[in-house]
Specification:
Layout lengths: L9 E10 L2 E11 L4 E5 L6 H8 L7 E6 L2 E2 L5 H7 E4 L11 H6 L14 H13 L15 H14 L4 E5 L7 H18 L2 E5 L3 H7 L2 E6 L2 E6 L1 H4 L2 H8 L3 E5 L6 E5 L7
Parallel strand pairs: 3-8, 3-9, 6-7, 7-8
Antiparallel strand pairs: 1-2, 1-4, 4-5, 9-10, 11-12
Helix pairs in contact: 4-5
């Protein structure tokens, strides 16, 4: 009997990330639960996207380290990292004139090599990703002719086609209407359930994060303010501390997960 694959482990130790000498993430320690869905939340400019760039090796640490299965990710070969860890950045850019099918196919590039050419498995991965994201009818369309929501789904398909053990997504619901937001988040849950893929996503919507993630990381000013199950993390005190908003926290009537009801200045006692 073939043993079940062991999910890859990703963590940060004393991680500091900086732009031109300005520290954005400062001495952060973080454990990403393997095989789970993690959402990173927090106010604008708190370091969420920067943290994701550091975890994916797009940014080299100013201090500390990111560990992939216990090894410093900076020391690993680029192709090895790309085969195990996929990233969908916040504002990806496609080459001019590239078609949807060609862009999604690029998700298979890390699996190619001198002695490993395109195979039926690659075709299957691309077709499955396009079907899952509902873009099959767009296959021959140039990406730059699509709407923002359609383009976002194409980029997600490319990340899915990579078939990595870890998938990092920075605001995957950007440009999507509510229906497509839920479609994408349901898709990520399905991927996690079917393959055990470790999913880490930055989300602005705290309620969607609490509904879809099994593990929540709340950030403030480049540090982790709280981390754990949404039911333990999402409290009125945390929302006040992290977001500066007075709120009530109730049970979501659909899922039972925490539901934040912000008050606003005109509705406080």
């Amino acid at each position: 009997m073939t043993p079940e694959p062991v999910p890859a482990e990703l963590s940060a130790r004393g991680l500091s990330l900086a732009y031109e000498g300005r520290t954005v993430v400062d001495g952060l320690d973080l454990e990403i639960p393997a095989g789970a869905v993690t959402a990173i939340v927090g106010p604008n400019a708190c370091g969420k996207s920067t943290l994701l760039r550091g975890l994916s090796r797009l940014m080299a640490p100013a201090a500390g380290s990111v560990l992939l299965d216990g090894a410093d990710i900076q020391s690993l070969p680029t192709k090895q990292v790309a085969q195990r860890l996929g990233l969908l950045p916040q504002t990806p850019t496609a080459p001019d004139g590239i078609t949807v099918a060609d862009l999604v196919s690029r998700g298979r590039y890390p699996h190619q090599g001198w002695f490993r050419r395109w195979t039926a498995d690659d075709d299957e991965a691309v077709a499955e990703a396009m079907t899952a994201t509902g873009i099959g009818d767009l296959a021959e369309r140039p990406v730059d002719e699509l709407s923002g929501g359609q383009r976002q789904r194409v980029w997600i398909a490319m990340a899915l086609a990579q078939r990595t053990e870890i998938l990092l997504l920075d605001e995957p619901t950007t440009f999507l209407d509510l229906s497509h937001q839920l479609d994408v988040l349901d898709l990520l849950l399905d991927l996690n359930a079917a393959r055990g893929t470790t999913v880490v996503m930055v989300l602005h919507d705290l309620n969607l994060a609490a509904r879809y993630a099994g593990h929540l990381v709340a950030m403030r000013a480049g540090a982790v303010a709280a981390a754990g199950e949404p039911s333990a993390v999402v409290t009125a005190e945390l929302v006040r501390e992290v977001f500066g908003v007075e709120s009530m926290v109730a049970a979501d009537p659909v899922t039972g997960t925490p539901l934040v009801v912000p008050m606003g200045r005109h509705h406080t006692a």
